[in-house]
Amino acid sequence: MKSLLTSLTILLCFSNYAISQEKKDLVKPNIVIFYVDDLGWQDTELNDLDEPTPWETPNIVALAKEGINFTNGYSPAPTCAPSRAALLSGLHPTKTGVTHVSGGTEPKTTKRSNYVTPYYPIGLMPENFTIAEALKMNGYTTGHVGKWHVGALDIQKSTNQGFDFAYESRGAHQGPKREKNRINNFATHDKGDAYRLSDEKYPPFTKSSPNGISYPKDMVTEKALEFIKSSKDEPFFLYLAHWLVHAPIHTKNKELLQYYSDKLGVEMPTKDIPIKTGGQTNPFYGAMVTTLDWSLGRVVDLLKTTDDPRNPGKKLIETTYIIFSSDNGGVEKANGDIVTDNYPLDQGKKYAQEGGIRVPMVISGPHIPKDKTQDVLINQLDFFPTILNLTNSTVPKKYSSDFDGLDISGVLLNNDKTVKDASGHEREDLWWHFPHNTDSQMQSALRHGDYKLYKNLIPDTYELYRLYKNGKREDLEEKHNIAAQNPEIVKDLSARLETYLEDYNAQMPYKDPSKFKEDAVTSIPVITNDAFDAKSQSVTISLEKGKSKVIEAYALVRIVNANLKKKKGKKGKLGKHDSTLIKIPVESSKNNLEYTFTIPEDIIEYGIILIDENRFMVKSDFHKIN
């Protein structure tokens, strides 16, 4: 036993030594995260299964040939905001609280469900520690270009979350306005055109354009290039978060739209009507995917042709790690269009099924082997701790000890076949939690080896699928629920998932009393007193005796931008991004019949949320103050 432990220790030390030696010949490598919006696992030529995708992505493929393609790469959530918040903070969505988009509002039901989705914040707050803040404290110049979507209040802006530079307009993704639509809004070569077509030519090559076609000017891409050029004298971190390929599904590139119409064998669209043909047959979307690929090519080309002044004799491409991925799976339908098809993966964006969370993922950079494919389980939560290691950056332990991802440097640099934590234990699970939208979408999920387990939050049942068998494709389509035939596997995996949910205090859907007729509704808590003391800024809520027990209580208070001045009349209405509700604790009496809390300064609205033992949500009235 002693010799075995000694051997393992030597191997571990050698592994760490190899990584440290490989990093010694670099002076603070640069980092580029190229983050795409809604790009599906089957929307590129990386992981082409069954029917080859018609969308051409030569630059994405070329990047994979320079690094590692992770075929089992996952986003932290099936929608945009929670994945972005998780990537930036290194914290699981249940820990940031951001589990869906457009949070910071009063919990409500929809016509599609009898359940209230739990409150969740609109984005990251100043107490969250971002990868930009971490790298900035280690000497990096930091830039964000493109989509932010993790908070719009001034305190939540990217420049208040560690970024030195930010450009967050949509660029060429800007949709048509007024009389314009997607068949008459194409870019031209006119000098006054904000999206003027390039003089330079790029793929694809066509019969009419054998030297390539022009692309509309995209300021997201241009600002990314500007940031690299202006920051190359210092180590830099670029978070390029494209608005592409999110809806609206359109393109300003008429020639590229014509190319895909010809390739698909369909007529060039002449009317702005939804594309209803199934599969991957939407030429607008194909043009968007290839435009995204073109943008990546522009960034990589700049890195290839630019000297690194900090590492003489090297180009920036030799000293820069590039991480390419998407915030969630492909959206299959939007605004009446059939956009794409994630087949053989099941479902898409807003679902915990494989089509909603499995995403393209490529990582390249110094000492990473070229043209490799890895099937090891990787989550974008791994990016933060991995980047810290690759850049020899350190952060306070109170942050690093809270990360939910793992450092995958061993996989990147040493060809490790498994991901291990700091104690040397191999990763066994990845898990997700999405208590939103329709009842069928409200699920938690766990990937363990070849298996995928789902917990249907409504009606609290489990499903089990075997995606692979001994590493080979088995039921990637998730067609065959084998839970009944495998009770022991369900028992094991459900115990793992339940532990995660409990440890992370994952918030669940709650019953809306107005939509249930069961006897328990008559016993739900009743608020008999709702008092506000202006002098002490305190609120007291009293409940009627003899009702069901309250098991959870919290207050929601509305904060506004600090510089927002009070105005009167219609012009004084708060704008969409001027305020948000945040969660604050309340104190309860011993008999749980009275709840009190003090309203912080500058709060303009408050209310209280109560959850009873039967999981009914009871809300007080929301009161405006000041």
TrEMBL record:
<dbReference type="GO" id="GO:0004065">
    <property type="term" value="F:arylsulfatase activity"/>
</dbReference>
<feature type="domain" description="Sulfatase N-terminal">
    <location>
        <begin position="29"/>
        <end position="392"/>
    </location>
</feature>
<dbReference type="InterPro" id="IPR024607">
    <property type="entry name" value="Sulfatase_CS"/>
</dbReference>
<dbReference type="Pfam" id="PF00884">
    <property type="entry name" value="Sulfatase"/>
</dbReference>
<protein>
    <submittedName>
        <fullName>Arylsulfatase A-like enzyme</fullName>
    </submittedName>
</protein>
<keyword id="KW-0479">Metal-binding</keyword>
<dbReference type="InterPro" id="IPR017850">
    <property type="entry name" value="Alkaline_phosphatase_core_sf"/>
</dbReference>
<comment type="similarity">
    <text>Belongs to the sulfatase family.</text>
</comment>
<keyword id="KW-0378">Hydrolase</keyword>
<keyword id="KW-0732">Signal</keyword>
<dbReference type="InterPro" id="IPR050738">
    <property type="entry name" value="Sulfatase"/>
</dbReference>
<dbReference type="InterPro" id="IPR000917">
    <property type="entry name" value="Sulfatase_N"/>
</dbReference>
<keyword id="KW-0106">Calcium</keyword>
<dbReference type="GO" id="GO:0046872">
    <property type="term" value="F:metal ion binding"/>
</dbReference>
